[in-house]
Predict the 3D structure of the following.
Amino acid sequence: MLFRADREEERGAAAFTRFGVRGTPTTIILGPDGAEVDWIVSYNPPVEMFAAKIEKALSGTDTVKSLRAAVAANPQDAAAAFKLADKFRERALEDKAAPLFKQYLALDPYGRAGAIKPDYLRAPVGYVEWAEYQLAYFGLSARRDPAPLRAFLKKFPSGQMARLGYSSLKGLFYASAPAPEAFAFYEEYAAAFPADAYVFQSWLERIIEAKGPLDKGREVAARLETLTEYNPDAWVNATLARFYVMAGDPAKAEALFGPAFAESLSSNAAFGLLEFADYWAADAARREAVLAAAASAVKILPGNPNLLQRVAGIYLKLGDEAKALEVFGPAFAKAKENWDDTSPLRTYVWFWTKEGRNLLGALAAARHTVELRPRAYYLWSGLADVLAKMKDYPEALRAAEKAVEFASEASRPAQQKNLERIKAAAAVKK
Amino acid sequence: MRKAAALSCLLAMAATAAVAQTWHQGTLEDALARAKTQSKLVLVDFYSDG
């Protein structure tokens, strides 16, 4: 039986009050007697993972009810005490969670009972480290006292929980501590995670809020730029731009977060979507996602020949030649902005020659390119390739000879080789 | 809400041809009373738009 408790409705609000639910989404399973059997707090996709949690709860494995019974039957059961503590922790019921975490730590000081792997962590964390972190965190969340978390960080100075611990302390120091205390904290935080750009970004945000010190800000900004040099991030660059404007260097802000940044972001997004589409194109089950990604990429960078040829390639992989021709066929080539420009036409000729389709379209475009630039060897070479693909060897040889004639000294050997290749193919045909 | 969509998917997965699960329309007390007579569990989805 299913009941939706909507906080905005009277009957839903009553359920929130009755079960003391603080955060959403929360799912509670009640027995026929109205007692809580189990709960699942928060939701992380995919849906199958959530379904598995429900299934586990319905099977009675490690539910609140079964763990309560296990602890009552055997107070020495360390794993049950830990798991029950963590169930209460999920619901932010610290008064019930804390004694159980303490009970667990007393029973299993060396952490032999196991490890926990919440959805948001990359790797499992030992029960002892997790329990100690949660007890320390309760100090911060309930009393705004950073001392227990600081003690935890002394004991567990690195790893996933240390990162969480510093991140929680950052929340306190950023928002509530006077600037000197906050800056002292950031020195420590950055020393613990010197390669984490978000630590430096947060530090710089705090400097912006305090309107200084500028010298320290420049140092932090420089470090942040270095850390994100090869992977620029819009939020980081926005922070950097705000800082440089404050520091009287608007040119630097413009360089970091001006229109060129937006252009680069669009390009990265569009080609990133294409990587996704290309990767999954062979998987029939992902067809809809592939088509959606390709369509989004075209919307972001409409008319970009390199992008369109890749989209056409994806449609061909999906067996949809008509759609490939729709995005990168004769209409593209004949569009005014492309028909008078050898660069997109060259991409067009190369793509269709490689695919061995739309060869008449490729030929028309290739012939037009050499009309536009009759001394460009590489355009003659493209024409030779499409003619050879069509097995029109006499014409292909004439075009390849032109390519050799107009080639620079450096590129002549390659063109000569291409000519020989076509000659060999022509000989085989005879 | 993603969770709402997830629960709907879950219901679709759980629904058999004969019995399709739907949200109980009455109060929670009604749902519990009914669950008691049928010896069933009640799954409560605490939901908020905010």
